[in-house]
Design brief:
10 helices, about 15% strand, about 40% helix, about 270 residues, alpha/beta, Alpha/beta hydrolase, hydrolase, AB_hydrolase_1
Length: about 270
């Protein structure tokens, strides 16, 4: 399996398919590069080079005890892009991966970056604070950690079968295969990485990162997102970006790259070609 080794000795697994302008995909918590199957298959057949890595502690990357924070996530992504010597790359991040992309560009600069898209993404800040009154109470994320530590197998099953894909909504038609694939990806990773990752995605403030970004960024979010609530995320991120465009999807869930891949892929393609 193709991997790179970071400065602190972590093996990061990645996929690298095709040729052409590179698109780099950053996945959500607690998943892996496999969550981008629908996008990677779409874009590799349309003349793009598609790359996706498993975040440290996730998927096929090293299950290390430490470094599960946005600084390390961004630095690991930078290590992958440098190893592959990617230029004029488009970065696409879903959920926690959207935070990773934003932090990577702000922290490592735009010399290798052409554009970015963040989907159902955690920026600017998920947790409720005095400065972010619309955020979710810290107790919500503390409860996530308690449930994960008590038994993540059932916890992950409940997330996938319920709010992640909107399968708990009236009239929804749950896909057992999609639920099982989410569960499979989650259980491949390390419990410690996922436990710490809850703090990373909920308590990292990306406000200053967003202000630093100059390249065009497409901010895509469903207004029925039960994981990263719409009102306190996408519209705020789009305002903070110098060159941000907000695209809102009525009724779409958090996992819209999977449940509505045809729509999401078409809109990404249009943005890439602009």
């Amino acid at each position: 399996m193709p991997t790179i080794t970071t400065k602190d000795g972590v093996e990061i697994f990645y996929k690298d398919w095709g040729s052409g302008q590179p698109i780099v995909f950053s996945h959500g918590w607690p998943l892996s590069a496999d969550d981008w199957d629908a996008q990677m298959m779409f874009f590799v057949t349309r003349g793009y080079r598609v790359i996706a890595h498993d975040r440290r502690g996730h998927g096929r990357s090293s299950q290390v005890a430490d470094g599960h924070d946005m600084d390390h996530y961004a630095d690991d992504l930078a290590a992958v892009t440098a190893h592959l010597d990617l230029k004029n790359a488009i970065h696409v991040g879903h959920s926690t991966g959207g935070g990773e992309v934003v932090h990577y560009i702000a922290r490592h600069g735009e010399s290798r970056v052409a554009k970015a898209a963040i989907l159902s993404a955690v920026p600017p800040l998920m947790v409720k604070t005095e400065a972010n009154p619309g955020g979710l109470p810290k107790s919500v994320f503390d409860a996530f950690q308690v449930q994960l530590a008590a038994g993540r197998a059932s916890f992950y099953r409940d997330i996938a079968a319920g709010p992640f894909y909107g399968y708990n909504r009236p009239g929804a038609k749950p896909s057992e295969a999609v639920i099982q694939n989410w569960w499979r990806q989650g259980m491949m990773g390390g419990a410690k990485a996922h436990y710490d990752g809850i703090v990373a995605f909920s308590q990292t403030d990306f406000t200053e990162d967003l202000k630093k970004i100059n390249v065009p960024v497409l901010v895509m979010h469903g207004d029925d997102d039960q994981i990263v609530p719409y009102a306190d995320s996408a519209p705020l991120s789009a305002k903070l970006l110098k060159n941000g465009t907000l695209k809102t999807y009525k009724g779409f869930p958090h996992g819209m790259p999977t449940t509505h891949a045809e729509t999401i892929n078409a809109d990404l393609l249009a943005f890439f070609k602009e």
